[in-house]
Structure formats: structure tokens, C-alpha cells
């Protein structure tokens, strides 16, 4: 078995450890709701279940996942003068309307750097990486 067979995304590792009973995070509630946008690499590796499971470790957090394709940013693609219109149209298919519809106290979660920039640019909302949400739960003591 090669090294690649042992490589995991952050959330896959945490979800695996939680399922095995080896993860001990003294998490406290941080919000009532979270809206999750999956990064393309999470979707392509079928890791969204792990991302959702990790967020469900946060007590009392109701989770909704946006049914979306790519956020449209795709690295620098979304900032190109000849591609920004396509980028924003992709984001407007489902991601940005869902973010705008979310209440002000709903956490917006997105692991992708490009995704977080697209969300901020298109909605004014700050999206958080799952690790930051977990850190908030640890700091809430």
C-alpha cells in the first residue's frame, strides 16, 4: 500500500478519529445554525460526509449544506477580466442566494480559500474554515 492510500483531508481524519472514539474535543455551542459550501476537492474526493460529520460534533449546531457546484472562483479564474462574469454567474446559481438568505447569526462555512473570497465578494459575509468553527467551540469555555 502506497503513501497516497494513507493521505486524508483534515475533516476525513477528524471524522475517522471521532468514529473510532479517539477524538476528544471539549466543544461548546458556537451558533444555532451553519450553512456549508463544499470545496470542489472535497466533492471530488467524496469527502463532504466527513465535513458534515465534523461540523455535527459542535453541540446544538443545525447544519445545512448548499447544493451547489463550484463557487465559480476557481483560484484566479474568478478575478480575470475576461472570466469574472462567468465566475459570478456560477456563484449566483445557488451558493450566493443561499448565503444571502441565511440569517445574520448563521455561520457560513467553506474550507476553500477561493470559495471564501467569492462568498465575501458576492455577499459581504465572512465564511469560516471548519477548523475555525471548531476552534470557536474550544474557545467558548
Report on the structure:
The protein has a four-stranded parallel sheet. Helix 1 crosses helix 3 (48-55). The protein is built from seven helices and four strands; from the N terminus they run H-E-H-H-E-H-H-E-H-E-H. The mean pLDDT is 93. It has helices at 10-19, 40-44, 48-55, 84-93, 95-101, 113-123, 130-139; strands at residues 33-37, 62-65, 107-110, 127-128. It is globular. The longest helix is centred in the last third of the chain and has 11 residues, at 113-123.
Structural topology:
Layout: H1 10-19, E1 33-37, H2 40-44, H3 48-55, E2 62-65, H4 84-93, H5 95-101, E3 107-110, H6 113-123, E4 127-128, H7 130-139
Parallel strand pairs: 1-2, 1-3, 3-4
Shape: globular
- Let me know the largest β-sheet: 4 strands, parallel
Termini Cα gap? 42 Å
Lateral arrangement of strands in the main beta sheet: 2-1-3-4
Average predicted local confidence, pLDDT: 93
Q: What is the N-to-C succession of helices and strands?
A: HEHHEHHEHEH
Q: How many helices in DSSP terms?
A: 7
The number of domains:
1
- Derived structural class: alpha/beta
Oligomer: single chain
Amino acid at each position: 500500500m502506497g503513501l497516497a492510500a494513507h493521505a486524508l483531508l483534515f475533516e476525513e481524519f477528524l471524522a475517522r478519529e471521532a468514529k473510532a472514539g479517539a477524538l476528544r474535543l471539549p466543544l461548546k455551542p458556537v451558533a444555532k445554525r451553519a450553512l456549508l459550501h463544499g470545496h470542489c476537492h472535497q466533492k471530488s474526493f467524496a469527502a463532504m460526509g466527513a465535513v458534515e460529520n465534523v461540523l455535527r460534533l459542535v453541540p446544538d449546531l443545525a447544519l445545512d449544506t448548499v447544493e451547489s457546484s463550484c463557487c465559480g472562483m476557481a483560484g484566479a479564474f474568478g478575478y480575470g477580466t475576461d472570466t469574472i462574469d462567468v465566475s459570478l454567474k456560477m456563484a449566483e446559481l445557488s451558493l450566493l442566494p443561499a448565503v444571502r438568505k441565511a440569517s445574520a447569526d448563521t455561520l457560513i462555512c467553506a474550507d476553500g480559500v477561493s470559495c471564501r473570497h467569492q462568498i465575501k465578494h458576492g455577499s459581504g459575509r465572512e465564511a469560516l474554515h471548519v477548523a475555525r468553527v471548531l476552534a470557536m467551540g474550544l474557545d467558548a469555555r
